[in-house]
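User: Please predict the structure of the protein below. I'd like the answer in structure-token form so I can feed it into my own downstream comparison script.

Assistant: Understood. Taking the following sequence of 144 residues as input:
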Amino acid sequence: MTRTTPPTSLTSLDLVNEAPPTTSLRPLGQRGGGGGSRNLVDQPRWLADKVANTRRAAKPQPCPRCSAPTLTGPDHDTCARVVRVDTTSVDRIHEIAALLTGCYSYNLTRGELHYREPHHIHSANQTEPIHLNHQCDMNGATLW
């Protein structure tokens, strides 16, 4: 009776010729920049893209429907939804007129979009620019 030994090298297992999965090194560290050491961890490209898309900052992106320039980003820190707003800011009179037509308004603060609650709308201390959620033009007619 002959005894076979298991293969000991990777070439005998035919694992060397396989292409490695697409990965990228991304630093993972503590929140808040606590001065700890940062470890490099292999992340798949799809996961790195997903993390990049969930960042809090608003990013300029053209509207996929009408190609108008817009800002896209989450509207809150927790339980957020991704919103698309026009790049041009409006004053409070136009904001109230837009609210009456069903539009939402957002503040652009430190590059982040923040939904304007009713107590923000009647506040006299408005210093951040006000942006309205994007609505595509209808047959070339502007909405405002």
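That's the full token string. Residues 9-17, 30-37, 140-144 have pLDDT under 50 and may be disordered.
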